[in-house]
Structure formats: structure tokens, C-alpha cells
Amino acid sequence: MILLDGKALSEKIKEEVKVEVAQLVEEKQITPGLAVILVGNDPASATYVASKAKSCKNAGIYSVVHEMPETITQDELLETIARMNENPKLDGILVQLPLPKHIDTTIVLEAINPLKDVDGFHPYNVGRMVSNLDAFLPATPFGVMRMFEEYGIELSGKNVVVIGSSDIVGKPMASLLINAKATVTVCNSRTKDLKTHTLAADIVVIAVGVPYLLKEDMVKDGAIVIDVGINRLDTGKLVGDADFEGLKNKCSHITPVPGGVGPMTIAMLLKNTIKAAKLREKRETK
Fold first, then answer.
1. CA–CA separation, 9 vs 144, rounded Å?
2. Which of 128, 208, 213, 250 could be cross-linked to 133 through a Cys-Cys bond (beta carbons 3.0 to 4.6 Å apart)?
3. How many other C-beta atoms lie within 10 A of the C-beta of residue 57?
């Protein structure tokens, strides 16, 4: 069994980003900039945003965290995004999800300039991704694709089951796999007899937020399991959606939780920010 070490790979990518930033600063006098909007005081979101800010600083990326109260109105939030769209120092704008219930997430995400949409959630980028055109890709599926590449995992012609159909992970993951010529089945909470689908899969990607949902008897020998889920048990322990202990001796490759897909998300966000900065440089030199 080969452990797909996302932590080590993410550090490698962050070093790549650091070099790219230094080159942009030296050769083009451009410092990539990322703005993160955090609404409310959700502890998990706050921790994640702090981690993004730290990673930006280490890479040499200018970053600003715009904290807003839970009571912020949708119009006030949209005004802030409009100012960020106009700010030439900001290459990327990221709105930390979830947003409070009184705010329409779709309207907010659509307000971000697609050329600054480093989260890859704007319909413009989603459409280009589905069409296999150059786009900002959602960071988590982007990270999974980079893991496949790093470990030499061939996707063309493989049967892949994606468990979970969210806009953030499941749907974009399926699109990227389809573009890589895999045969893709997407399962969700209404899927009948999930085990029938997963047993036929060469690769299973699971992202549903249910601890230990994918068990040893649900995959065939030599299958590859990518566990995107992260769940905190009552004991405080972090676990994935896959039963790692049960699966590890049956799989050819598997991601751990923590230390698998999770660290890749921030690394690929940094990659998208660099991409946005390079696009800015091209526009400015035209």
C-alpha cells in the first residue's frame, strides 16, 4: 500500500510557489495579493483563514483578511467585493464559506471578478472547467488531481466513483476526472446500494462528511481511495469518511486523514493566486 502524502506534497508545492513569487517580484515588480473575506465567528472557518494567511506570508504573497460581523448585510458585503474587484493590488478574492443564512451565497460568488476568483466557484470558471478550457479550478479537486499526477496514477479508462455531489468538491471532481478520460459515476445520499458502485471502482473519491462511511468490504483489492472528508469525533479525534484502518491493507493507494487531501487545498489556492497575478501582468503589458 502506498500512502498518498498530501502534507509532504503540499510543502513541495508551497516551495514552488515561493520561487514563482520571488521571480514575479524580481522580474515584473509584481507582488501577488490575496484577500479573504470572513463573515461571522465560526471557529473552523477562522482557523482555516488563519492558516491561509500564514501560508501566504511564508510564500511572499501579500494577503489581507477582511473580517465582518455575522450581522453584515448582503449589500455591505457586495460593496466590499466591488472595492476589491477594483483594487489592482489584489489578484485573488476568496469568500470563506459557509455564509450566514440571510446572505445569498450564489449572488456573492457571482459578484467576484472571474479573473480574481481563485476559489474557482464563479459560474464563468465552472463553465470553462466543465468545457476543459483554462480556468481557475476549485482548490480541493485541483489538489486531488495534482496528487494523481505526482504519484503517477493513470486516470484514462479507469472506473472512478465519486461519493458526494457538492458544488465545492463532488461536481468539479467529477468534471476534472471526465476531462482526464476516466469513466465516472457520481453517488449521493439518494444512491441505492452504494456498495455495488464502489466495488466496481478502480478509484473511489469520497467527500460527504460521514465518518467511516466507506468500509473495507466496499472496495475491491488494489483499489485507490481518496478521502476528502474530515470529521471530528466526540473524542476530539479527526477522521475521514473512509475507514482507514480497515482499508489500508486492501488498497494500492490511500490518503490519510489528517495529512492527505486537506493540506493540498491551501497549496492549490496559492497556485491559483500566482496564476491570477501572472494574468494581471499579461493584461498590464498589453
1. 11
2. 128
3. 11
